[in-house]
Design goal:
Two copies of one chain form a homodimer.
Chain A lengths: L1 H13 L4 H4 L13 E2 L5 H6 L3 E7 L6 H23 L5 E7 L4 H6 L7 E5 L4 E4 L5 H12 L3 E3 L3 H9 L5 E5 L6 H13 L4 E5 L2 H6 L7 E4 L7 E2 L7 H10 L5 E3 L5 H6 L5 E6 L5 H16 L8 E4 L8 H8 L7 E6 L5 E3 L11 H20 L7
């Protein structure tokens, strides 16, 4: 905060700016209204003004104080995002609101059926954002949106960069050149999933050899898996790629992150989530994560298994809340089964992380926990345990 | 944002909570005042109430609107942090303010000379926080503060966790047991630098063998360096360790992060910073980072070289501001020399990241840039280029 203050002092004393001191000065909302209220009259003209339009299609705010305050906070986050994006020079990016009660018709015209989500309109795609409604997370996501859907791997150093991407689903294709029709099909498929799923391509025989890939082959990597699945039936049409990805878009191990947290939470398996808390920067947490990855690799073919990994470092403000809600100590690794609806949960006894389970013990525990919860459900019990 | 809304709806309709839907609900400031204004009368009694006290020793806010608004925003961030920490059950953590104009005497009594910083008082240490004044970053830092200063490495999986820590200065010691006087000296030294510098220890001969360490040896790792420096003269006293660390606490390559950004920015070298922007999640950025690490390893003995790496993903809200201030495109890697005071800067021409420099080219460029800037300075020029 030093610089911020120094800046203020400078402003007061000379009425001028010091760029150097301002270099690390976080933007604050300047009070100017930039977020558009979109309605039947203005939405076309407003959206024409921008290369990219960020639209929050929100339910009509309730009349209660809670609801009103909630909505104000969301508007402020969007205003700050709009202000930052306003300074961004590569593209003209606008932000707007559509009220689901007053302007459902506009949403319909734009092809939005599900309210309470943010939709990002680019030239040829509408991309849903279902993450934290915070300026920094949203803005970072938008930077990804406007990047090229396909990253090209030119050499071995970049290949290491590709291998370093392990938290998202990623695909890599090997093609003759940019002009190859098969690359075009790949790029078209990429636009359907970008930026949620990462697409890479190479035109280098050397890189392809290192990846052990044949021409026009596309490999599919689940998060945290070293070995890919070769998508069968090359060369592929865009449809074939899209179908395969849609059939494989729930990984065995996936990381909850601010930009995808609600999307993942909604994608529960039979009303439940297997949640694993592990702090990667901590030896215990790292060790447990290694075990989790092994369990995931051993069970990658089990469609009913999808473990949600949460690194507490990514959600410092939620940590005490989670410790209370789940009655666990998050200074050590934890794994449990959580009811996605009422947050009832059962957690593995790991003796404060002193005694981490083996891969087999963990697999057995998960199996038992899932069976148990299913039985309880089938008995029609309203709570899990 | 979905859950937040569902929660609101639930509140309205049943007036009750749904834990499940609340599980991912970010806390918002509830309006309750938790931050204490510390003064000569109350500071002793207030601080006695808490295990850990977070004190923002701030300059007296100016009377201008800018200064007032600035201070309000800072107070709000601290209130939200206090609210979250209030829910935290492991320790009683309090937050307080000391006004440098009205209560300098209190600060003096607490041993604080430098204002405009946050100081965290634990049983036996006062730790300075000089990072972003944001609730999540500050709270996350405080979690680190209350963790044990020394992490024990018990096995090879945890050893991989240790190796995975590369962004901070870290030390590891090999001792006979917890009771060893040499371990105690190590732990005492750790308290002096915790949590800014990471301390690890092992009592396992197997782990020590993997690290190629002798009994009572302590190894010092710069960030991003695979090979440690063996601290000479084992076994060491606390003083010897502290002296060595203080003599080596400016790494050749260091990462600017929200929790240390102002601390690093102030630690300029001759009024300048070498700033490298590289997005690790991007192949180009990863490739450039690999080159940077090589340059750092080759020049680790050069005391005048300290490259500050910034990953734009860590500062989405500052990105457009930086692109404007430095007149660069941050969708590609960039490296430049920045005047820490007036932000004048010169950047290497990297042809939009298409043509990254070799290690040698980068070393030559840095050398020339530094010489040039020094010459201009010595000519007493007020601006760099």
């Amino acid at each position: 905060m030093k610089w911020t203050w120094v800046l203020v002092v400078v402003l007061l004393s000379f009425g001028g700016l010091s760029l150097g001191k301002e270099s690390l000065d976080f933007p604050e909302y300047d009070g100017k209204d930039r977020v558009h209220d979109l309605n039947g009259k203005n939405y076309k003209s407003v959206m024409k003004k921008y290369d990219v339009m960020v639209v929050y299609y929100h339910d009509h705010p309730g009349s209660s104080r809670v609801a009103q305050k909630q909505f104000e906070i969301e508007e402020m986050a969007l205003e700050l995002a709009a202000q930052v994006l306003d300074e961004f020079e590569d593209e003209d990016i606008g932000v707007g609101l559509i009220d689901a009660k007053h302007d459902k018709a506009v949403a319909k015209k734009l092809g939005l059926d599900e309210s309470d989500s943010i939709f990002i309109f680019t030239d040829d795609e509408v991309i849903e954002y279902d993450g934290e409604l915070a300026a920094d997370t949203l803005v970072d996501f938008i930077y990804d949106v406007i990047e090229d859907p396909v990253e090209i791997i030119d050499n071995n150093r970049e290949l290491k960069g590709f291998e370093n991407v392990e938290e998202d689903i990623k695909l890599v294709g090997y093609f003759k050149s940019h002009k190859s029709e098969h690359f075009e099909a790949f790029a078209d498929a990429a636009e359907e999933f970008h930026p949620h799923i990462k697409f890479f391509a190479t035109f280098s025989a050397k890189v392809a050899k290192a990846l052990d890939m044949k021409l026009n082959e596309v490999d599919f990597y689940e998060p945290f898996m070293d070995d890919p699945v070769v998508i069968p039936g090359k060369p592929y049409s865009e449809d074939e790629l899209v179908k395969f990805i849609e059939a494989n878009d729930r990984p065995t191990l996936r990381k909850l992150q601010p930009h995808n947290m609600y999307e993942i939470w909604e994608d529960d398996v039979g009303g439940e989530h297997i949640i694993a808390f592990a702090e990667e920067a901590d030896p215990d947490g790292f060790e447990f994560l290694e075990i989790l990855k092994q369990v995931a690799e051993d069970n990658t073919d089990n469609p009913d298994l999808s473990i949600v990994w949460i690194d507490p470092d990514d959600f410092p403000l939620l940590l005490p809340h989670w410790e209370k809600t789940f009655d666990i100590d998050l200074s050590h690794p934890q794994i449990g089964v959580v009811d996605a609806d009422d947050a009832d949960s059962v957690w593995m006894d790991m003796d404060d992380g002193e005694d981490l389970p083996s891969v087999d013990e963990l697999e057995d525990w998960i199996e038992d926990a899932l069976i148990e919860t299913t039985e309880v459900r089938s008995k029609g019990a309203s709570r899990l345990f």
